Amino acid sequence: MYIRWKYLIAAVIVAPVLALLVAWSGLINIGARSGHWAVTDWFLHWSMQSSVRTASVSTEVPPFDNPEMLKLAAGHYEAGCAMCHGSPARERSSVVFGMLPVPPDLKPRIPTWTDAELFHIVDKGVRFTGMPAWAAEHRPDEVWSMVAFLRRMPNMDAAEYQRLAGLAASSEGGTAQLGCQSCHDEDRLNGRSLIPSLAGQSPDYLRKSLMAYLKGERASGVMQTAVNGLNADQVAALSAHYAEMPRNTLSAEEANPNGGNVEDGEKLARLGRPEDRIPACLSCHEKADGNPVYPTLSGQSAPYLARQLRLFREGHRGGTAFHHLMARAANDLTDKDVEDLAAYFAARANSR
Amino acid sequence: MCDDRLTGRSRPTRSPVNCRLPLAVLLSGLGLSSCTGVQSALDPAGSEAEAVATLFWAMVAGGGVIWLIVVGAVIYASRLKKKPMSESGASRVIFFGGVAFPVVVLAFLLAYAVWLMPAMRPWFGGEGEGLRRIEVTAEQYWWRVRYLDSTGAVVRETANEVHMPVGERVLFLLKAKDVIHSFWIPSIGGKMDAIPGRTNALQLEATRPGTYRGVCAEFCGTAHALMAFSVQALEPEAFEDWLAARPGEVPVASVEPVASGQPRGLNLFLRHGCGSCHAISGTPADGALGPDLTAFGSRPTVAAGTLPNTPENLARFIQYPDAIKPGVRMPGFAMLPAADVSAIALYLKGLE
Q1: Which of A233, A319, A346, B274 could form an S-S bond across to B269 if both were Cys, CB 3.0 to 4.6 Å?
Q2: What is this model's ipTM?
Q3: Where in the sequence is the domain holding B176, given as residue range(s)?
Q4: B136 and B238 co-located in one domain
Q5: Strands (E), chain B
């Protein structure tokens, strides 16, 4: 028996039409109750695992050398992840057991992935599941903090989790709530913090930065999630509130955890380096009659400052309407310059 | 003075009465219009340009005579002479007209050009010791001009304008910051490249006072065509007066309100951080990244010969530098209130 060409061609045309007809008829059950067929389930998981494995082949894992990475991630985990994946302090909501696929309890799952694989899952999300991508595209630093946190989470008890996420402070009576203070409480910050101190910051800078997060003009998966739902009045009130608070000062050795050269940083901040097109930081920042949208840097932690400078240098740091000035200023900084400047400003007395 | 002559482009602010009409009259003179003006090697105002122009006219005249002889010979041979020439006569014509004559003419031209060379590139006679030195650094896309004293110390710094005395050889030390540029004042002399990492020496002598236009003559990037400068050839006493003048920070023309001892425009200039890149002598602004703006109001053009220097053009450039000069390193300040930009522009225009 022969298969004639015309039958083959007809089949190629007819088969998709038939498939469309079946879908149009509405006979396919898209309800989540009965779950996938076993073969579909296997195929989707197998594809996902293969995709994550291949994507992470050439990913370089940075050192998890700053314990403050955990605090940056813990609050966001509580705000964005715990409701589906559970946390050391709470079980998954019963609602999520009706999802398809059911978001896994992470405790037994995390050890089955490498750091690079976890990075790709958290950063890119997973298609055909409820797993969203990280809210900001160019913030691998934040995602690595989350990976560092996830790595630790299986061995974490509820008390440690609540301490890291800033839940314990506000938990007297009723459910613990996340607020600005959960992360930005002055007493929770130290010289290695990746979370900035807001106390004593210029209120104009705070307000315009929060608005930039709200409008998606400054990228941060953590902050864009945190400010969600605030209105302009609340933003103004919060900005004024934090601007009036006193900022804790850092001791000299506490302020320089990465061993930057404070003298070199001071020289660069005062004079710039015109031959490399680096302007003096202090010609805009920390001036008594300066533009109030330019932030106060003194007493901010060195890791936070260094991270912001790197984001500016890479062109991924948005912010207020003035942020492009800073991107130009930071464009030619070397890694040593970044660490020196961060160390200098972290230890500098606030003169504003 | 009609500033348009120094900018290569027409702009909305140019006055039709002052500029368009004479230009139209000039253009009606057809080819002659390009032979005069602020940027013409055929209207020399310097010893080197004169030598070049003399050589050019000698070649034009000689070439014209030779052309007439050749065309005359062709007409004679094809139209007037009925009988063919004898073989020995033709050989003589070929020898004298085709060998001897070109050898003599070219040898003469070569000798004349070699004889001119010391006038055009006088470093054969020495390194220019004892000459007045002006250091010109080409950067994308502007000119840093420093007047040096006999010890090499900077007496005065300006940008995008060269002042030189008439009747005196001046040694230009040509440098480049980023890519290869070329320094050319057609009315005064030939061009020379400015090469990163090198200092090229060019001696020029202006012979006629006046205002001329210099250009970058080597493609250096997107705004290469918008990288010009003005040249003021001054009588020696006027030049010495100009060099010795120490422009202060208070605007000469009191076009803008002065509050709290300091002009509002200067306050805004400092407040927004303009001083991190630009210097104005007599003020705290001491940035060395961009053009020095001391006595900016006396410059004929804005943005290195791009626009006539009016407050409106300057305000437009401050707001949208990249639209006026693509690739310019100055960031735009369109986010400032228009009134602030106008105040800064008025202040700068008032600096003399």
Answers
A1: B274
A2: 0.85
A3: 132-244
A4: yes
A5: 132-139, 142-148, 154-159, 161-165, 169-176, 181-184, 192-194, 200-205, 210-216, 228-234, 258-259, 262-263, 301-302, 307-308
